[in-house]
Specification:
The chain has 300 residues and is mostly beta strands. The protein has 2 domains: 223 residues, no CATH class; 42 residues, no CATH class. It contains 2 helices and 26 strands. β6 and β7 form a beta hairpin. The protein is globular, with a radius of gyration of 22 Å.
């Protein structure tokens, strides 16, 4: 009888342990289908009411605003009279506005509609996880899947997304998304920023010197505070505000993460894209050293 009771306990315990797992967390799910951005993917920043910057901002990719006109794009010191597009020393790419020459207005109208369709698509995906951490996502590691919160989401410390190059992450946020100052998102195992989608019903706010990865689909505004960097697309149904930021569209570079390195005098460090084209010279991607210097990372 004693032996039989012990055996029964050992048979029951695994099922009890499984039953006690949080119901909001399931086993690693099948990767969700990607969110199709359609022509909105032609832009690293796309906004309806305005794009503004202060400080030394460097953007790799096209930016566009519609239905607002070019007067809603401020701080970029646009060069030469625009035709179908304009240029700026702060943008390695083209600048588009709804009042530029044909076919730009029609293209922007389509891109904005595609942005809104993508937002609706992402918001409607069935979740694999609900209310994880009560909205506090700092310190966590996220595998592929769809994550849903009914309120604000805060990252007060670094966190990681780990998976393969074909895995997809969708974050459905009914409130605001806030990254505290200095917080970094790290990608592991081959995860790519182009496969990460942040659907935000409120505003998305990146704190000073924070580092972000992924595609933001915001129903309202996106704000990058001083020194924040991102491998990302910022697609906002109102405005995008920048302040001395470095923003690179997903897929334009091979992400590099280094803990430390040293350069000899007068040495140069380049970050190039997958086609071998040297990216725009700026402090993140090109360093010219006049004295023996050790540059501490991470640099990405």
């Amino acid at each position: 009888m004693i032996t039989r009771n012990i055996q029964n306990r050992f048979l029951i315990l695994p099922f009890v342990a499984f039953a006690l797992l949080p119901q909001s967390i399931k086993a690693i799910p099948v990767s969700p289908a990607t969110v199709n951005l359609r022509t909105a993917s032609d832009y690293v920043i796309l906004a309806k009411t305005g794009i503004s910057t202060t400080g030394t901002t460097a953007i790799t990719g096209n930016i566009g605003v519609s239905p607002s006109t070019a007067t809603a794009i401020t701080g970029f010191s646009i060069m030469a009279p625009p035709t179908t597009y304009a240029t700026s020393a702060k943008v390695t790419g083209k600048i588009y506005a709804a009042d530029y020459n044909t076919p730009t207005p029609a293209n922007l109208t389509t891109a904005v509609l595609d942005m809104m369709t993508a937002y609706t698509d992402a918001a409607g995906r069935a979740p694999d996880s609900i209310e994880l951490g009560a909205g506090n996502i700092g310190g966590r590691t996220f595998v592929r899947g769809v994550y849903k919160w009914g309120g604000n989401v805060l990252a007060a410390s670094n966190f990681t997304l780990t998976g393969s190059t074909t895995d997809t992450w969708i974050f459905e946020i009914a409130g605001n998304l806030n990254l505290s100052s200095g917080v970094r998102i790290t990608l592991a195992g081959g995860a790519l920023p182009r496969n990460i989608f942040w659907q935000v019903a409120g505003s998305a706010n990146l704190g000073t010197t924070a580092h972000f990865e992924g595609v933001v689909l915001s129903k309202t505004s996106i704000v990058l505070q001083t020194g924040a960097t991102a491998n990302a697309r910022m697609l906002a149904q109102t405005a995008v505000t920048l302040d001395a930021n470095n923003l690179v569209e997903p897929g334009s570079t091979v992400p590099i993460l280094m803990s430390s390195f040293s350069l000899k005098p007068a040495a140069r460090f380049f970050l190039v894209d997958v086609s071998g084209r040297t990216l725009r010279s700026n402090p993140v991607y090109l360093k010219t050293i006049s004295t023996s210097t050790s540059i501490k990372g991470p640099v990405q």
